[in-house]
């Protein structure tokens, strides 16, 4: 048995298939010719980068949402001129083409990891691109998600973002990795695809190919050679019918809005198919990606109008551009911060580039005016009263009727009353709020246990925010909202809406309908009394009816 962090609920039983390790290179390699033939090696190198960029872009074009964005980033890295120049430098110094890519990628990866935060995550993208280019240079199969023609559990030390982005439509029925955390790309995309997943399971990569395992993506436990009873429980849980339509509410009618997190029009289709009551987080970054210049007012208006159109009569909460030093854009020259997670990002970019936010607000207001959707707009990375006051005044001046703020920084939660004296609503981003509260980089696998959204300190901040709201809407739009049991806790704390990947909505809807509001309040009280995240989770499990746990696929498979 292996234990890790369950990041995508559900159970699956299948044989193990391990992800192939990266292709190794050395100075002694002969990549389609001797290393001494510099011209030939440069030609092979350039061909490898070009073909990798083209293949990744083509794959991105047939994907949606987060998967598309991840593959577009990988394609950009494969086409990066600085990476090309570094690799060419090594070829000219006498290294073979493949090893030159390895050396150049190692240099850039080390630089990115030192920056931390979002930039450290780009190192994983870079390694995935490295493996792709090296395979093309050597003329061997590109490493990636296997397609054996039968269901299997994918086991790896870690997955590159590009690997994870190609899971949709594959034979993978569950994922187990030794590294990663609850807010990694693996976790986010597994939840979006509805694939059970466990990360940070130490020793799991030593499992033999073909070994049968049962993966419980809720408890974070991986059972090797499960018993017949455990297999039967897992199959019964996976076949359980979830409530796929209807407004979010508890058994006794207490309303909790069930909304979707989306990044563009394609995600909106999935949200409507899941019968979401609206959109709780529209990540407007999709309008700014893959561009060397900022999108114009007309371009933004057209994009936002396309997103809003299907949601007539429903709420759509748009978050203004969450970019900056930790999420660099080519047209946003902010320079490098030593600690990007604490640097110029989100609303803070307005100080240097006020026209960027103003143009976006004008485009959102214009799109909202032409739509029958109920447009709400909020700012990311709000830390003080002054910031929210300036933002809401600016947004209202451009015609935004409902203005809010993200609660991602502890100072905003601690002074939520001040924030809500200006804002019409707030939305709690649990990913960043956990990172900043626990002082744990959300991209660093070594501190993944600290990023557990069941941390009592995080729940205390949610409670503080709700208690200061005086009836104004308080939503949760971080990944934690997709956890059916944690959704009960949030409802008990008084959160008015939960926003998540569309595939998670049915599970949360089912969980809420299985208990009363009083029971939700009991789970909230028990979770906050706990001293650790594990204690909080177990305390809530003990309060939830066993039949509901089984229906949600959250039973412990007959053990512990």
UniProtKB/TrEMBL annotation:
What is the similarity comment for this entry? Belongs to the PEP-utilizing enzyme family.
Which positions are catalytic residues?
185 (tele-phosphohistidine intermediate), 477 (proton donor)
What is this enzyme's EC? Answer: 2.7.3.9
Database matches in Gene3D superfamilies: Phosphoenolpyruvate-binding domains, Phosphohistidine domain, PtsI, HPr-binding domain
The record's section on InterPro entries has: PEP-util_enz_mobile_dom, PEP-utilizing_PTS_enzyme, PEP_util_AS, PEP_util_C, PEP_util_CS, Phosphohistidine_dom_sf, PTS_EI, PTS_EI-like
Example GO BP: phosphoenolpyruvate-dependent sugar phosphotransferase system
Task: Tell me the residue numbers annotated for binding Mg(2+).
Answer: 408, 432
Species annotation: Hoyosella altamirensis
Q: Enumerate the SUPFAM superfamilies for this protein.
A: Enzyme I of the PEP:sugar phosphotransferase system HPr-binding (sub)domain, Phosphoenolpyruvate/pyruvate domain, Phosphohistidine domain
**Protein name, as recorded:** Phosphoenolpyruvate-protein phosphotransferase
């Amino acid at each position: 048995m292996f234990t890790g962090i369950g990041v995508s609920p559900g159970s699956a039983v299948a044989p193990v298939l391990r992800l192939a390790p990266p292709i190794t290179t050395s100075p002694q390699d002969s990549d389609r010719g001797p290393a001494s033939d510099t011209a030939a090696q440069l030609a092979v190198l350039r061909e490898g980068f070009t073909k990798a960029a083209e293949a990744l872009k083509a794959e991105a074009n047939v994907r949606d949402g987060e998967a598309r964005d991840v593959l577009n980033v990988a394609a950009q890295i494969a086409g990066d001129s600085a990476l090309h120049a570094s690799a060419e430098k090594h070829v000219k110094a006498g290294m073979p083409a493949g090893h030159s890519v390895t050396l150049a990628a190692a240099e850039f990866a080390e630089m990115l990891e030192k920056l931390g935060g979002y930039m450290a995550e780009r190192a994983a993208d870079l390694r995935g691109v490295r493996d792709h280019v090296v395979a093309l240079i050597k003329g061997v199969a590109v490493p990636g998600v296997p397609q054996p023609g039968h269901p299997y559990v994918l086991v790896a030390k870690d997955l590159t973002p590009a690997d994870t982005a190609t899971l949709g439509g594959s034979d993978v029925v569950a994922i187990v990795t030794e590294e990663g955390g609850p807010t990694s790309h693996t976790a986010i995309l597994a939840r979006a695809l509805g694939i059970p997943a466990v990360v940070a399971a130490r020793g799991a990569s030593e499992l033999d190919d073909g070994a049968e395992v049962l993966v419980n993506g809720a408890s974070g436990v991986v059972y090797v050679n499960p018993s017949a009873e455990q297999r039967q429980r897992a199959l019964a849980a996976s076949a359980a019918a979830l409530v796929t339509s209807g407004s979010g509410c508890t058994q006794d009618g207490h309303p909790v809005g069930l909304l979707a997190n989306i990044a563009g029009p394609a995600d909106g289709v999935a949200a409507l198919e899941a019968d979401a009551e609206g959109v709780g987080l529209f990540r407007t970054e999709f309008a700014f990606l893959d561009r060397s210049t900022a999108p114009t007012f007309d371009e933004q208006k057209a994009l936002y109008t396309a997103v809003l159109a299907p949601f007539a009569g429903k709420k759509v909460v748009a978050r203004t551009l969450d970019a900056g030093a930790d999420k660099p854009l080519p047209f946003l020259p902010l320079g490098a911060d030593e600690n990007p997670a604490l640097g110029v990002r989100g609303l803070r970019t307005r100080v240097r580039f006020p026209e960027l936010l103003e143009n976006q607000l004008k485009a959102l207001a214009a799109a909202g005016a032409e739509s029958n959707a109920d447009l709400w707009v909020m700012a990311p990375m709000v830390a003080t009263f002054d910031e929210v006051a300036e933002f809401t005044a600016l947004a209202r001046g451009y015609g935004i009727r409902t203005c809010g703020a993200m609660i991602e920084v502890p100072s905003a939660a601690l002074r939520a009353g001040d924030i809500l004296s200006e804002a019409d609503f707030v939305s709690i981003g649990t990913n960043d709020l956990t990172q900043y509260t626990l002082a744990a980089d959300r991209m660093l696998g070594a501190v993944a246990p600290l990023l557990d959204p069941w941390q009592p300190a995080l729940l205390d901040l949610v409670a503080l925010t709700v208690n200061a709201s005086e009836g104004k809407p308080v939503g949760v739009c971080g990944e934690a909202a997709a956890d059916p049991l944690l959704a009960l806790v949030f409802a008990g704390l008084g959160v008015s809406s939960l926003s998540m990947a569309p595939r998670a909505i049915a599970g949360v809807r089912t969980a809420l309908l299985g208990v009363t509001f009083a029971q939700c309040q009991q789970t909230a009280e028990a979770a906050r009394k706990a001293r650790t995240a594990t204690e909080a989770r177990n305390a809530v499990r003990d309060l939830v009816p066993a039949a509901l746990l089984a229906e949600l696929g959250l039973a412990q498979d007959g053990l512990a």
